[in-house]
Amino acid sequence: MLNKMKRRLGLPAAILAVSTGAQIHSSEAFAKEFLDGLAEVNFLALQNYQAIQAKEGAFRPVDEEQSDGFGRLRVNLMFKFHITDYITADVDIAEEPNDFGNNGDRDFSFHQDFAGIEFELLGLSGHASEDSNLTLRLGNIGASPFQFKGFQDGADNQGNALIGNGITDYATAENGAQLAYKKSFEDGPIRSYTVAGHMTTSSFGEAFQEDRGYNYRLQGAVEFTNGFKAGLSFFQANQGDQLRFENGIASLDGLTTTNYRFGDGENYNFSASASSERDTHVGAMPGLNQSIVELDLAYQFSANTNVILMLGKSSDDYTFADTDGNALAGITYFGTDGVADADGTTFDSVNVIKGESSVEYYVVEAQHYIIPDKFYVAARYADAKNTSELIEQTDNKVKRLQVAAGYWFNDKTLLKVEYVDQDEGINSGGQIGAGFDGFTSEISVKF
Fold first, then answer.
1. How many other CB atoms are there within 10 angstroms of residue 414's CB atom?
2. What is the CATH number of the domain that holds 442?
3. Cα(342)–Cα(340) distance, integer angstroms
């Protein structure tokens, strides 16, 4: 749903309404109003079905022979409150197994998934403007280096042309403050521009331990009247002061790391993992002094066709290691008693050593409506190279191809079907071990 995506990406609603293109169906039009329009409610539900197998050589061999079947129903209940003309509050309550895990999948319960208060400062100061706004948000801050494309979070999937998020999306929500400014123009080559920045703690809960740092973001975008859009994002975290080294090795146990080291949960599931696992992305960076720089370019050819190009690099000052201090390509690895061993069992590293880990990536995504507002096809190709300085620079890529079709039964109901194929090199930092492929589908409603 576009309304959730706007908040998740950390930009005011008006910005994303323009940026994402004419064919995205916004649930704002379907929100039920209460208390004379002071409160709005949206309900979202999603059911998925998948037939996906890990490829031979996966970290967990049981994933190579999975049964196809239905996933857990995902449900979101979203509230928005208009406190005054210039102050709003929102809360998203979600039963989302691939985000919280729900105590080992035993406890089917709702959680606060996203909430905050927004102050439109120009209006509050008596300088309200129809073509500009300056918004301060406090609470959960949603952010990602990508712009202009859809994002998926639980049942909130209708703003995403495909299924799931990308291998380098690095999208998440944390606690903090954000300031965003947008300016629109009636004439000239520029339709609008946006600048946003935030400071958050690296936690969706609370984290006050010694030497815990902050995460920072600066992001800007320009939209031109000819359909071209350009955006630039910069992220920086400083969580490394928490580390305590002994014999050159430090443990991550008990430390706060950046949530965008792995991004939000995806709807590709594997039988050897809990449903809350996020193991289909690139897991090369510990998320301590992590930085991300990304350039996004988009072009709206027509009301029915758009394409997006994303180019980026993410890096950290530290590299995952086994218990002996040997550098690892990613968090997941084969080992014996915690030491890297190609013939061993699977471990998730909790140790780091000094040395830059980094990923360079690009993503191309396109969507075309064959029948306007009814039936579309879409594709996404992502290529991520593990360029970490302590990792051998051979067989070091994760590549994913997604091809999908979507059909709107009505303005509230969307069916998506997708084929996905992911390949993972041995030094890529991929967490399945060899990749996976298969078919998946989702049907979702919003009202």
1. 21
2. 2.40.160.10
3. 7
